[in-house]
Design goal:
With about 600 residues, the protein is an alpha/beta fold. It is built from 18 helices and 27 strands. The protein has three domains: about 240 residues, Aminohydrolase, N-terminal nucleophile (Ntn) domain (Glutamine Phosphoribosylpyrophosphate, subunit 1, domain 1, 4-Layer Sandwich), CATH 3.60.20.10; about 200 residues, Rossmann fold (3-Layer(aba) Sandwich); about 140 residues, 3-Layer(aba) Sandwich (Rossmann fold). β25, α16 and β26 form a beta-alpha-beta unit. The protein is globular, with a radius of gyration of 26 Å. The N and C termini lie close together (about 10 Å). The structure holds fructose -6-phosphate. The site of fructose -6-phosphate has 15 residues, from α8 and α15. Fructose -6-phosphate binds next to α8 and α15.
Length: about 600
């Protein structure tokens, strides 16, 4: 949610900033801009639209050569999507870019207005710039000015700031928003996430919250409020440069769907001893779960859907009562305190503000937190007592696929681990299920990907429709919830996921002749009930497509178009089904000419509550 980037060094900064913005664009793509410092002045170029629009604007402007610049790609929070609201914002000496939200901006906007300041944008960022300029005019000391302003600002931020009379220096600071710094061979870098830094440096540092960072020709320094300064301690990045590239695919989403077999293997790799699940590689004590009597799972969006599926597995296999909470609701309605509660926070980005807030609320109550995270060293990973990384590799498409896939895999693994500890399932069965997850499930995903053209025909059945229903029972309902979200977010077709048995309690009144219904059925025990639900909608004229286990196909053939999935166990069924529903959403979006990687109004990591 908003990407920021900065560079100061020996090379021309502009190509580095635009390249960095292209990589960070998945964080927000309402507008883009940069500010170049040099020759005693700051030049700002910004516009609504994508980074390519900014590049076009740069081409039409006199070439800027500078060794120090900052850039921003925006996901609008305060103020509409306009050129004026695009970042960077300049007030007097100060030019800055911002990711986050200043919560007391209204109060300061009013006070500054009374003092005679005229705002030229609707953003909270300009308020911060105006306050900083006012402080800087008094002190002429950037550190004193920044620390002074931080005392009066409330909210979340990562700022990168330059001053008109210090044109080779960048200052930066973060609070509840991501910011990384890295020393490259040709200069110093800052960015919102690692993907923008991997081409320039193999190590990085996450500065502590509230500590101002100075980047200049001498290097990068952490400058503390008491006047002391330190060099950052860098750590090795686990990310490969090529992992954040499209690698021959038309879209990142397609690439990431196709990467799921290897992502699934990577998620499970090394977490096994003698054929049984084992987390000692993650320094998770073997007895970690022994006193757990209740599990709360918090997450948002697709991660929450992974949790929904995981909760069903955990309860079925371990008998531990497990409840899934929408993270943004959790802290306002926390269940009564109960000894032995464990919170599992799930997040691909590791930055989601709602999930982070829920995690903090749980910690404040003394509830231990285990995080399942993809992006390394992010806030949720750092603040949890223990983290299990999903190792899916960078996920660039805004709609998650391999992130979700590996979250489900790890929850499954946890469930098997607990089943073994508690002896709720025989060891041989656990070994067999783990082998299915590791070996058969990746193959099942590949087999579905190979049938893409068939799924494209299913997508074709949705042509001309602007609403539909997904239905399923049990874990198929959890998968349907994700299928429906995937379709909505990238193709803009309204769909609703329903527990199949619930439709008849009201919503079935929306079924008309031709209404598309996509039904999932992979659970033998629920197949007959599913058939009744399919017949209920088919007899009212719905155009039903059933995705089911191949062995159940004949049941549905009379009432629906059937897409049979070759899957002989729960493990292959779940991963085959998730791949099929991702590809249906993908094909539908492509048929409608949508930008699948950057759907409208969305951004990859949602760092505001
Ligand atoms: C949907 C999607 C979102 C995220 C949600 C949580 O495709 O990507 O619903 O799943 O915003 O994000 P993370 O997992 O980064 O916390």
């Amino acid at each position: 949610m908003c990407g920021i980037i900065g560079y100061t060094g020996r090379q021309n900064a502009i190509p580095k900033i635009t390249a960095g913005l292209s990589v960070l664009e998945y964080r927000g793509y309402d507008s883009a801009g940069l500010a170049a410092a040099g020759n005693g002045r700051i030049t700002t170029i910004k516009c609504c639209g994508r980074v390519k629009d900014l590049e076009e604007k740069l081409r039409q402007t006199e070439e800027i050569i500078t060794t120090c610049a900052i850039g921003h790609t925006r996901w609008a929070t305060h103020g509409g999507v306009t050129d004026r609201n695009a970042h960077p914002h300049t007030v007097g000496y100060v030019t800055l870019v911002h990711n986050g939200i200043i919560e007391n901006e209204k109060e300061w906007r009013e006070r500054l207005t009374l003092d005679g300041y005229h705002f030229s944008s609707e953003t909270d960022t300009e308020v911060a710039a105006a306050l900083l300029n006012r402080a800087y005019q008094k002190t002429k000391d950037p550190l004193q000015a920044i620390y002074g302003v931080l005392e009066i600002l409330r909210g979340s931020y990562a700022f990168a700031m330059i001053f008109a009379d210090r044109t080779d220096e960048i200052y930066a600071v973060r609070q509840d928003s991501p910011l990384l710094i890295a020393q490259g061979e040709d200069g110093c870098y800052l960015a919102s996430d690692l993907t923008a830094l991997v081409s320039y440096a193999s190590t990085y540092c996450v500065p502590d919250e509230g500590v101002v960072v100075r980047l200049n020709q001498d290097g990068i320094f952490l400058c503390y409020k008491d006047g002391t300064q330190k060099e950052p301690i860098y750590q090795q990045s686990g990310m490969q440069h090529a992992a954040a590239e499209r690698g021959g695919y038309d879209t990142f989403m397609k690439k990431e769907i196709c990467e799921q077999p290897q992502a699934l293997r990577a998620a499970l790799n090394g977490r096994e001893a003698e054929g049984l699940p084992d987390f000692s590689i993650n320094a998770l004590p073997t007895d970690f779960f022994d006193n757990v009597h209740r599990i709360h799972i918090v997450a948002c969006g697709s991660a929450m859907h992974a949790g929904l599926l995981g909760a069903r597995l955990l309860e079925r296999d371990t008998g531990i009562p497990t409840t899934i909470f929408i993270a943004s609701e959790y802290r306002y309605h926390m269940p009564p305190k109960e000894e032995g509660t464990l919170l599992i926070a799930i997040s691909q980005s590791g930055e989601t503000a709602d999930t982070l807030a829920a995690l903090r609320a749980a910690k404040a109550r003394g509830i231990p937190v285990l995080a399942i995270v993809n992006a390394e060293n992010t806030a949720i990973a750092r603040e949890a007592a223990h983290v299990l990384y999903t190792h899916a590799g960078p996920e660039i498409a805004v709609a998650t696929t391999k992130g979700y896939c590996t979250q489900v895999a790890l929850l499954w693994m946890i469930s098997l681990f607990l089943s073994n500890r508690r002896k709720t399932i025989a060891q041989d069965t656990i070994k067999e299920r783990l082998a299915f997850l590791k070996e058969s499930a990746p193959k099942a995903i590949s087999a579905v990907i190979a049938r893409e053209s068939e799924l494209s025909h299913i997508a074709e059945r949705l042509d001309g429709h602007d609403r539909l229903f997904y239905i399923g029972r049990g874990r198929d309902y959890a998968l349907a919830a994700e299928g429906s979200l995937k379709l909505k977010e990238i193709s803009y077709v309204h769909s609703e996921a329903y527990a199949a048995g619930e439709l008849k309690h009201g919503t079935i009144s929306l079924i008309e002749p031709g209404t598309p219904v996509i039904a999932f059925c992979t659970e033998d025990a629920l197949a007959e009930k599913m058939l009744s639900n399919v017949r209920e909608v088919a007899s009212r004229g719905a155009s039903v497509t059933v995705l089911c286990k191949a062995s159940l196909s004949s049941l549905f053939l009379q009432s629906a178009v059937v897409f049979p999935l070759d899957c002989e166990n729960d493990e292959t069924a779940v991963f085959a089904m998730m791949t099929a529903m991702q590809l249906i959403a993908y094909e539908t979006a492509r048929r409608r000419g949508c930008d699948v990687d950057k759907p409208r109004n969305l951004a990859k990591s949602v760092t505001v509550e």
